[in-house]
Write a structure and sequence with these properties.
Blueprint (H helix, E strand, L loop, with lengths): L10 E6 H9 L4 H17 L8 H8 L3 E6 L4 E6 L11 H20 L1 H8 L3 H19 L7 E4 L6 E4 L8 H8 L4 H23 L6 H4 L20 H8 L4 E6 L2 H10 L15 H7 L2 E11 L2 E10 L2 H16 L3 E4 L4 E4 L5 E4 L6 E7 L2 H13 L1
Parallel strand pairs: 1-3
Antiparallel strand pairs: 2-3, 2-5, 4-5, 6-7, 7-8, 8-12, 9-10, 10-11, 11-12
Helix pairs in contact: 4-6, 6-8, 11-12, 12-13
C-alpha cells in the first residue's frame, strides 16, 4: 500500500501494560530528557505550562493510554497488550491498527532515517513539528485512522511515535493543540500531497523536510518557492544582551518558534478542540500569525531566572503591525500593565512578564521573562540599540 520495501531489520514486540513505563523510560536518553527540559522552559515562558508542569511529566502521564510506539534507534516497535507475549492472531482490531501504524513508521525510518533527520533539526521547534506532521500525517493517511480516535505524541525530539487513545483531561490546552496538529492538519496536508504527487510526493518530504510549519498550514505555498526568512539574531548579539542583563546572565540556547507555535501562543489558554484552527473565535489570532516569515529567539538564564528574547519577521510592515496589535491585546488582557519609555511591560497571572516593543519595519521584537527587571533591561537595550 505504501510502495516501500519491507525493512529486514524490524522487530515487532508486545509489551504488557504493567511493563510499559519501564520499557519506555529505559529507551529515553539523557540528551532527549535534556531537550524536553529545555523546551519546557520555553513553554513556561510562553504560558503553555505552569511552573510545576513539565513536558516529561505530561509525556509520562500519557503512558497509561498508549497503544504502541516505535523506537528508530532500536528498529523496534511495541504494541501494548494486557499481557505480554501475545501472538499476531490474538491481537484485537485496535491493536492490529496500532501495529499497522507503527509498521508505517518503521518503513519511513528504514527508507528515510527518521532519527538522523530529527538530529539535523536541533532546537528548531518549528521545523521539528513540521517534520512530525509529515511523518504522522503519512501514517494517519495510510492507516485510514482518525486522529480523534488515536492521538499520539512524539517524545523528545520526535524520536519515538506513541499511538495513544483518548484526550487526557489534565493536559494544558496549548499542549493538546500541538499534539493534535500532526494528526489533523498534518493528515490533511498529507492527503493533499498524495492526491497531487502520490506516495512519491510524501517520500520527497521525508527526504527533505519542510523547513517550517507554515508549509503545513498553507500547502498552497509549497509550489511557490516559499522559504523562511529568519533574522540573524533576536535583536542584539547575545554577548551584548548578557552584558546588559548583568552578572550571572548567559545565553542558554536559541532556535525558531515558527508560525504554529506563535499562533498557539496567541490563542493562549482557550479550550482545545480538534477543529480549533477552523473556529471563528480564533480567526483574529490565525490572521495575526499568518504573515510569519521567520524568527529567531534566544533563551537566557541566571540561576532560576529565565528570559526569552524573540525577533519575528513578517512578510511586510502591515502584517507585522497586525501581529503587534493582536499580541498587545492578548498579552495585556488580565495583566498588570506598566508603560515605560518606549516599551510596555505586562505582568501575567503566572508572574511572568511580557515586554512589548513597537514593530520595526516588518520585524516585531518582544521579550518574556521571570522578572520585570530583566525584561525591562533587555528592552531598554534593544530600544537604544
Amino acid at each position: 500500500m505504501r510502495g516501500l520495501e519491507a525493512p529486514p531489520t524490524l522487530h515487532a514486540l508486545t509489551v504488557a501494560r504493567r511493563d510499559l513505563f519501564d520499557t519506555y523510560v529505559a529507551l529515553v536518553t539523557e540528551e532527549e530528557r535534556l531537550q524536553l527540559d529545555e523546551t519546557t522552559e520555553v513553554y513556561r515562558l510562553l504560558g503553555h505550562l505552569e511552573e510545576n508542569e513539565s513536558l516529561w511529566d505530561i509525556q509520562a502521564s500519557f503512558l497509561d493510554a498508549v497503544l504502541g510506539f516505535y523506537a528508530p534507534r532500536e528498529k523496534t516497535l511495541w504494541v501494548v497488550t494486557d499481557e505480554g507475549g501475545v501472538g499476531l492472531e490474538e491481537l484485537t482490531p485496535s491493536q492490529r491498527e496500532t501495529l499497522v501504524h507503527e509498521i508505517l513508521h518503521a518503513l519511513q525510518d528504514y527508507h528515510f532515517d527518521l532519527d538522523a533527520t530529527f538530529e539535523t533539526l536541533g532546537q528548531n521547534l518549528d521545523a521539528e513539528l513540521a517534520f512530525t506532521a509529515v511523518v504522522e500525517g503519512d501514517a494517519v493517511v495510510h492507516t485510514e485512522r482518525h486522529a480523534l480516535r488515536s492521538l499520539a505524541i512524539p517524545a523528545a525530539g520526535g524520536r519515538f511515535f506513541l499511538a495513544a487513545v483518548n484526550q487526557r483531561p489534565n493536559i494544558p490546552a496549548a499542549i493538546l493543540r500541538e499534539l493534535y496538529f500532526p494528526y489533523t492538519t498534518g493528515a490533511t496536508w498529507a492527503r493533499g500531497v498524495v492526491m497531487s504527487g502520490g506516495t512519491e510526493g510524501l517520500d520527497a518530504f521525508l527526504t527533505e523536510p519542510p523547513p517550517a510549519t507554515t508549509l503545513i498550514l498553507h500547502p498552497e505555498l509549497m509550489g511557490a518557492g516559499w522559504e523562511p526568512d529568519p533574522p540573524a539574531n533576536a535583536g542584539l548579539p547575545e554577548e551584548q544582551l548578557e552584558a546588559v542583563l548583568g552578572p550571572g546572565w548567559q545565553a542558554w540556547f536559541s532556535g525558531s518558534i515558527g508560525e504554529f507555535h506563535l499562533l498557539n501562543y496567541l490563542v493562549g489558554d482557550a479550550p482545545s478542540s480538534p477543529d480549533w484552527l477552523h473556529r471563528s473565535t480564533h480567526r483574529p489570532a490565525i490572521n495575526a500569525a499568518a504573515g510569519w516569515a521567520g524568527d529567531h529567539y534566544t533563551l537566557f538564564e541566571n540561576g532560576d531566572e529565565r528570559l526569552l528574547v524573540a525577533r519575528v519577521r513578517f512578510v511586510d510592515d502591515d502584517e507585522a503591525a497586525q501581529f503587534a496589535r493582536h499580541h498587545r491585546s492578548a498579552a495585556t488582557r488580565r495583566a498588570e500593565v506598566v508603560e515605560e519609555d518606549g516599551f510596555t511591560l505586562a505582568t501575567r497571572s503566572d508572574g511572568n512578564v511580557v515586554g512589548l516593543l513597537e514593530p520595526v519595519g516588518r520585524d516585531v521584537i518582544f521579550a518574556i521573562g521571570t522578572s520585570a527587571e530583566a525584561v525591562g533591561a533587555a528592552l531598554e537595550a534593544l530600544v537604544k540599540g
